[in-house]
Amino acid sequence: LRKGLLPSPSGEWPAEPFRSGFLAALNKMEMPRFTRRYPQLLDPLLKQMLSLLEELEQQQQEQQQQDQQQSQDPMQQQQASDQSQDQMSQGGADGQPDWEEQMEEMMQQGGSSGQEGQELQISLEQKEGGSQGDGNEMDEEAKESMEEAIQKAADDLVEKFEEQWKPAMENLQEADAAFDNLEDLMEGPVGYDLSHALWKSDGWREMKELRKKLENLKELRDLVRQLGRASGKGPKRRAPEEIEARSQRRGVIRSSLQPEETAGLTRSGDLSRMLPFEAHLLAAGWPRDTRLLHMVRRAERGLMSYDRQGWLEDEPCRPTGPLEIRPAAQLGPIIVCLDTSGSMAGARETVAKAVALECMRGAHRQQRACHLYAFSGPSDVKELELKVDAPSLLELLAFLQYSFGGGTDVDRPLELSLDRLEQKDWAQADIVMVTDGEIAPPSDAVLHRLESAKADLGLEVHGLLVGRSDSSPAMDRICTHTHVFQSWNAVGSSRYDY
Fold first, then answer.
1. What's the rounded Cα separation, in Å, for the pair 317 and 326?
2. Please, which residues have CB within 8 angstroms of residue 383's CB and are 6 or more apart in sequence?
3. Which of 198, 269, 417, 467 could form a disulfide with 436 if both were Cys (CB 3.0 to 4.6 A apart)?
4. CB 194 within 8 A of CB 188
5. What gap in Å lies between CA 219 and CA 489, rounded to an integer?
6. What is the pTM (predicted TM-score) of this model?
7. Which pLDDT tens digit goes with each residue over 257-280?
8. Smallest Cα–Cα separation from 196: which of 220, 175, 177?
9. How many helices (H) and strands (E) are present in the chain, helices listed first?
10. Which residue segments constitute the domains of the chain, with CATH numbers given?
11. How far is it, in rounded angstroms, from Cα 43 to Cα 128?
12. What is the enclosing helix (H) or strand (E) of 10?
């Protein structure tokens, strides 16, 4: 299982019929794929298997005791019958005729009477032999009954195992599809806990639907990438070099795919970047061999060229050790202010929840902090720490099942966001406000704090309007960048019925 393979069905333990049924259940749930990716599943899985085996053995012992009890009842009846016959023989010795004396008298009679005695003797012998045959048949029936009972008990236990693990594996599969790395969910004092409320939540269905919609919402993904300062742009300093590496954390790498500046000279096969003297080999009047020389150097990517490079953001990378001049800082944190008033119900609510989920996914992928303030009426603000751990994810699943309603007041969420910006770890954060634009302007005190943060910290406030084709005066005063959501078809709505 650790290698992603099912155990061999020809193993000696556990015994049949449990082994084949249990392996079939593991294969049905694609368990080897999960245990290979998340070895933390192995301990609870094996503990569950041992618990089922213990229960099966207890049922087998109870069935054996029951069968032994049933087999002893006919024997006790036979012993009672033998005792009664002994009493009858003793009674004959006391002067009462027994069956042996009666048989002798019958055999001493004439031909017909002798024949009757012989038939009686044969009948008694057949009766004794039949009792032995009935005992063997009873043993076979008891054995078959016991095997059927054990098979049914094993099937019931395997079915119980599937009922417990199948929903959790489906939810784990959805979590694996939504997030790149689930190690924080697996680590803990007991590892993977099947009984945790997280794996029983109905919110995974909402997450699955939102994740499918996000596949067609490129504008939301692009918006999340713009959030948080200190990325590939800005001042540079000496810092460890980083190169592209699959399945690693995301950061900033140097790449020729982003030709922003000339870093020196290099060799390549790109005609647009080659030095002028490389082109003189193609000049008219030169021998044919010079043209062939140019073609060979171009085919071998040996043309002397300008080394034009830039910085790609949000790419998987790893540090190599040597220092270089580069944008060293990572992408900054994200603060989400989400309007959950009654006017956001319907398709707007779907977009708002999709933004929250994409911010969480992007922050987790890029190892950034993310915090959500869901606001409606005055002082009605709910805070969520958007991290991929069990408590935070459980709160997010509950939020995805929540229906929007109430009034709209932006003062309190903005005050909380500005308070968080004063913390050292959040000083480079950006704010994204998701609303339909039907809001009142914030108070003068909040606006003054916003302007100070923009001037002193370089704060950027991105506004995402859902439900309006243009901005509003309140959003113009709050935001440095305003985005209007356009992809209504992706959420099952149109521009005119949201």
1. 14
2. 371, 372, 373, 374, 416
3. 467
4. no
5. 13
6. 0.62
7. 778 788 889 998 888 889 988 888
8. 175
9. 15, 10
10. 18-178 (no CATH), 250-313 (no CATH), 334-491 (3.40.50.410)
11. 59
12. none
